[in-house]
Specification:
525 residues, seven-stranded mixed sheet, 21 helices, 37% helix
Length: 525
């Protein structure tokens, strides 16, 4: 291959529908081009298409900015271009951009034209027509490599506004040119709803962009030529003008809802860790014991511990570093632990709270389970990490002594914080909490109850884990139960084998765990 004059970096994520056309248009340019595809773990045929048409394929994520920076670092050329996978380069784009760089430009804006037969695509094309004479809405896509590296590349903390951010940082000290060429943006697959959801997903990034650049960012965000000349919305295409107004109104509303979700939902409700206690069945994250921690508030952990009768024989499945076991031992219980993480199992053993620690993956093996019987089998924040939790429940239930109980705690996906985020089109995994990225299963009160019944158990009691609302939700009143689906952070179920319907005496869950003791607590929570 002739030495390339320009590297084109294409970030992808399940881009099979448009990627072949994109890469073919790059390859057909009239100057030698190096193509680097950075794929964010696509599950469709994107990797196959990329391997057949690109010079190099890198697998990495998690976002477009990071993918672009990695592609730039792997480049062999002094000129870099960044093209999305749903774009096609028009004739002479690379040659025109290189000429502008040769004439002294540090970066080059290439005008875009939307293509697609859907009404939303036609509205987008109508909107882009207003930018034909130039607008700050258009951001540079071609850069001199040394300038790109000098300003630090794309800001990996931004999503959706990273193009404007890089353009502004380059333009602050260098010249930016506008090429007489065209990029064709295929937006045929986007609907009105999808466009609004996309804007909602970018809302947080836009907020950070505004904080970073202040008035300059606001002027870019509001630089819409049709706002300055609104009469052009009515002539000669009034239907498209109305469509543009409706689209922009929907996008603004979606952004406001997304920002309201961030501002109005308290941080403790959005992302408090559930105290993940893996026993197996999911890929373990890099070992780091701080990820296994006791929730110090009178929430899920306190409710779970107080549902265990004093001086019981307990099997703590997914015992992590032993923080639950220590509290159980303080209640006079004899505790056996199961843990698949080697470091966590060692830490639990060092607490001295456990009679035995079994290092195994309960989600994969039915062998080597501890010998029972146990008065309580505790599965706290475990089953959501397991591929087949029903079979695990059945295997563990046989270890129960006559009259024994199983206590199961799983996160509540129907929590109000998740619902509000979904209204804004957001379902983002996190390092901990309800949307922990290692969760394989999601539960509501109804599906959690179905899981327990499918495991051959009879439900005796349903409790709620919540730092702020647990003392209300666990009252035996109908109004409190009606709120559990919205406010509970965890669903806690006490169950017994179907053959045993003996009434259980559930300890008072409205207590506070402190220093290994159970102290009565009034209204202070």
């Amino acid at each position: 291959m002739e030495h390339p004059a320009i590297t084109v970096v294409v970030p992808t994520r399940n881009s099979a529908r448009t990627l072949a056309n994109c890469l073919s248009s790059i390859r057909s340019q009239d100057v030698p081009v190096e193509i680097i595809v950075v794929d964010n773990h696509s599950s469709d045929s994107t990797p196959t298409i990329a391997a057949s048409l690109a010079d190099r394929v890198i697998v990495a994520g998690p976002e477009r900015s990071r993918q672009r920076n990695l592609g730039a670092a792997a480049s062999r050329c002094r000129v870099l271009a960044f093209i999305d996978s749903d774009m096609k380069l028009g004739i002479g784009v690379s040659r025109t951009a290189l000429a502008a760089i040769h004439d002294g430009a540090a970066a080059v804006v290439i005008p875009e034209r939307t293509v697609g037969k859907s009404f939303t695509a036609r509205v987008r094309a109508f909107e882009r027509g207003f930018y034909a004479e130039g607008s700050s809405v258009e951001a540079a896509r071609v850069f001199r490599r040394d300038i790109f590296e000098q300003v630090g590349g794309y800001d990996e903390g931004l999503t959706g506004s990273e193009d404007w951010d890089l353009h502004m940082r380059v333009a602050a000290g260098h010249s930016v040119s506008r090429a007489n060429a065209t990029i064709y943006h295929d937006e045929s697959g986007i609907s009105f709803v999808a466009a609004c959801r996309k804007k909602a997903a970018y809302a947080r990034g836009m907020q950070l962009f505004l904080k970073k650049h202040g008035a300059g960012a606001a002027s870019v965000a509001m630089d819409r030529p049709w706002l300055r000349r609104p009469w052009r919305l009515a002539y000669p295409y009034p239907v498209l003008g109305l469509g543009l107004l409706a689209l922009k109104t929907g996008e603004v509303a979606a952004v406001l809802v997304a920002l309201a979700a961030d501002a109005l939902v308290p941080r403790w409700l959005r992302g408090r860790p559930t105290g993940r206690r893996r026993a197996g069945g999911a890929a373990a994250p890099p070992s780091g014991l701080p990820r296994y921690a006791l929730n110090p508030n009178p929430g899920t952990h306190a409710t779970v511990v107080l549902a265990v009768p004093v001086r019981s024989r307990v099997l703590d499945v997914g015992c992590a570093t032993g923080y639950i076991g220590k509290l159980l031992a303080a209640r006079g219980c004899t505790v056996t632990g199961i843990e698949c993480d080697t470091d966590a199992a060692a830490a639990a053993r060092d607490t001295g709270a456990y009679a035995e620690i079994v290092h195994m993956d309960v989600g994969e093996s039915a062998h080597d389970l501890p010998r029972g019987p146990f008065d309580v089998v505790l599965c706290a924040d475990v089953l959501e990490h397991i591929i087949d939790p029903v079979s695990v429940i059945r295997r563990l239930a046989v270890l129960l002594a006559p009259g024994g109980r199983m206590i199961i705690s799983v996160p509540n996906i129907a929590n109000v914080a998740v619902r509000i985020a979904l209204l804004a089109g957001r379902f983002e995994y996190t390092d901990a909490g309800i949307l922990d990225r290692t969760h394989l299963r999601f539960f509501t009160h109804r599906t959690a109850a179905g899981l327990v019944r499918d495991g051959g158990l009879h439900i005796q009691e349903v409790l709620s884990g919540s730092d702020r609302f647990g003392w209300i939700l666990n009252r035996h009143v109908r109004a409190a139960h009606a709120l559990r689906g919205l406010l509970a952070y965890n669903i806690i179920i006490v169950a017994v084998p179907e053959a045993s319907n003996d009434e259980l005496s559930i300890p008072d869950a409205h207590l506070r765990i402190e220093g290994g003791r159970s102290d009565p607590e009034g209204s202070e929570h």
